[in-house]
């Protein structure tokens, strides 16, 4: 059965409210803590996770829940609707007081990312992008702009940039990279170095709603609420680049 669009709109609005509030909590923890680096990242993750888990358990008690910072249980596997959250995506960037970290609140229905929000608390005074508040992609002429990891750029992305004459743009969290494509600041985000469902469920829900191509790097669909939550690669890009990117990856 197809999800009810009205219900999904309500879910997206809830995801946006929770992601925005969680982002503010993360900022407050960082401002008050006498910590930095990894210790600050761990404290922020734990505090934001407590808020999100409590809120979703109270507001959507019949749904499943998977969080990076919460012990997983098999109960979610029997649920059609499962919330998948990353309290702080980009803990390294958060701990370094950079802006390229994010909060992910996503909803998968029958394995498909259908609703969600990604908060970028330190971008433009606090930005939240959702799957049900869609703006047209801005036009971009010229070579593609490819987002890569600050420390471990995907070899496939480097090869694509070389073959297409693209510009490489290092950035922090997966959510920040995906939302840079949604916001028209970049064209291609390809990651092959290993992720988990919470790293890209909410970003994929938002990106797909904005008309972007979202898949594994072999072109197969992204599926969520699996027993094994490892989801090693993702491609989010403007539709006009998808075929060429997938063709290049297939030859590597």
From TrEMBL:
Pfam families according to UniProt: Inositol_P
InterPro entries reported for this sequence: CysQ/Inositol_MonoPase, Inositol_monophosphatase-like
An individual GO BP term: 3'-phosphoadenosine 5'-phosphosulfate metabolic process
CDD domains associated with the record: CysQ
GO molecular function, one term: metal ion binding
Domain of life the protein comes from: Bacteria
Sorted UniProt keywords: Magnesium, Metal-binding
Protein residues bound to Mg(2+): 68, 86, 88-89, 199
Cofactors demanded by this protein: Mg(2+)
Listed name of the protein: Inositol phosphatase
Gene source species: Croceibacterium mercuriale
